[in-house]
Design a protein that fits this description.
The chain has about 170 residues and is an alpha+beta fold. The protein contains 3 helices and 13 strands.
């Protein structure tokens, strides 16, 4: 057989508070799915509790080779509104972004923590140039809406991303 294309990560927009429903139904269809979750300390009724919420409210990621596997069923999946598109094309999430997200998960719980800067690899780094400039610590935002804005900014600029050595500096 001729070789297929390349597997890429794509962002999927979900209906409000339907991320877990979308995750379950996309998994059932055999897609590779990633729904990052974050543990957040919240002050409720006079004491602190640990709550878990979706890192990017209304967004989930799927990895697929579009030449091998039609993404047509994604839109009709329960919980899903559709693929995130820019200029009519499904938005590809750069591997650099997905790798950074996956590396930030706590190994034991699989959860992100809201107290860790992005790209925590022994030393916090900051992207100082290129499409991902300024990405140090963006996901420490408590506010899910702000995290979504950051995600969409990344996706909007991230059509052809390869992170150059010069883009990375030690975070101050």
């Amino acid at each position: 057989m001729g070789h297929a294309g390349i597997e890429c990560w794509y962002a999927v927009c979900c209906k409000p508070r339907q991320e877990a429903v979308a995750e379950e139904n996309l998994l059932r269809q055999g897609f590779q799915v990633y729904l990052p979750r974050i543990r957040i300390r919240q002050h409720r009724r006079g004491h602190w509790i640990d709550a878990v919420e979706v890192l990017f409210p209304r967004y989930i990621f799927i990895r697929v080779d579009p030449l091998r596997r039609s993404m047509a069923t994604v839109r009709s999946t329960r919980g899903v509104l559709g693929l995130v598109r820019f200029g009519g094309q499904p938005a590809v999430v750069p591997d650099a972004v997905m790798d950074a997200l996956l590396q930030r998960e706590d190994a034991a719980s699989g959860l992100h923590r809201d107290d860790r800067p992005l790209f925590a690899a022994g030393e916090a780094i900051k992207l100082v140039d290129g499409p991902l400039a300024g990405m140090e610590g963006v996901f420490t935002q408590q506010d899910g809406d702000k995290r979504v804005i950051v995600l969409l900014e990344l996706l909007g600029k991230a059509n052809k991303v390869s992170v150059s050595r010069d883009w990375i500096a030690r975070a101050a």
